[in-house]
Amino acid sequence: MSLLQAILMGIIQGLTEFLPVSSSGHLAIFKILFGVDTDTGLLFDVLLHIGTLAAICIVYYKDVLKMIVEGIGIIRDCFINLIRFIGNKTGKTDEPYLRIVNSSYRKLVVLIIVSTIPTGIIGVVGKDVVEMASEILLIPGICLILTAVLLFIADHTRDGEKLPKSVTYTNAFGVGIAQGIATLPGLSRSGTTITACLLSGFNRNFAVKYSFLMSIPAILGALVLELKDCTAVALSGAEIAYYVVGMIIAAVVGYVCIKTMLIVVRRKKFTGFAIYCLIVGVISIGGYIYMA
Question: For this UniProt entry, which segments traverse the membrane (predicted)?
Fold first, then answer.
């Protein structure tokens, strides 16, 4: 992989991760059409996602910090309840149990954990399928058309009112399934999850925030899996530098795009993205037929 290819893929990742047009689909199409070989399977894709992960953490740094604090608080209170349970059962104490989910941010942490469970299961089970699909131009094309359909649905879905306190764990699990399925190249993760949130009655602004925040554990999980499989891969100093450059560019471009996306989504402007995905999907399918 050349430096130019790394830069272009970083730009593609940063532009498409937060716009509902599927970063994985565009990267897969780019690799197929230009014969890009990263030699490490999904590792470079994951590193690009780490760049966009940094963008999410910067934009939502207050929420991320608060969630970390509350997450630690949840673990602490669970440990306290465990000690009290043992004491109460043995008759040594008679203390009331602490309420674990006692704030909106704690509820948000638990909701994201619930969403991450089906995403993780689908990601692990379907990993080989995703890698295989990324090498066939037809699959991203079909999935981009499906993304267009989802965006049309999102554009015509009535705004909900659900915030963390009123969102159910069933809602969170369903959105997690949507995120897991969206690992297929061509299915926009943000477009799929935001649509799932809106159909579940989420407040539109919260749907956008939830979609981005729930991607954090999913990206970290994917990174762990890839690093485990890539320990024996030998990379030259230049290749490592190219990977890092692509990751940094993805972070910078992603930061700009997430700020823009927040405005676009709130104003219900999905139609343009839907038409774009439809066109690119049709072109991809046409390219597959032509190359077959």
Answer: 6-30, 42-61, 108-126, 132-154, 210-228, 240-258, 270-291
Average pLDDT over every residue of 46-60:
85
Where residue 36 falls among pLDDT bands split at 50, 70, 90?
Answer: low
In 3D space, the residue among 118, 111, 114 whose CA is nearest the CA of residue 180 turns out to be 118
41 Rama sector, left if φ>0, alpha if ψ -120 to 50, beta otherwise: left
Question: Strand pairing partners for 202?
Answer: 162
Q: Nearest CA to 27 among 258, 216, 158, 184?
A: 184
In whole angstroms, what is the distance from residue 137 CA to residue 218 CA? 25
Give the model's confidence band at 101: pLDDT under 50 very low, under 70 low, under 90 confident, else very high.
very high
C-beta of residue 23 within 8 angstroms of C-beta of residue 16: yes
Looking at beta carbons, which pairs linking 167-172 to residues 24 or more positions away fall under 8 Å?
167/107, 167/111, 167/200, 167/202, 169/110, 169/111, 169/114, 171/111, 171/197, 171/200, 171/201, 171/202, 172/111, 172/112, 172/114, 172/115
Mean pLDDT of 60-78: 95
Instruction: State how far the Cα of 1 lies from the Cα of 107, in Å rounded to an integer.
Output: 44
Is this model's pTM higher than 0.90 or not? no
- Ordered by start, the domain boundaries in the chain are 3-72+104-291
Question: Cβ(18)–Cβ(123) under 8 Å?
Answer: no
Output the six-digit token pair for 169.
């764990």
Nearest Cα to 191, choosing from 143, 247, 147?
A: 147
> Which pLDDT belongs to residue 270?
84
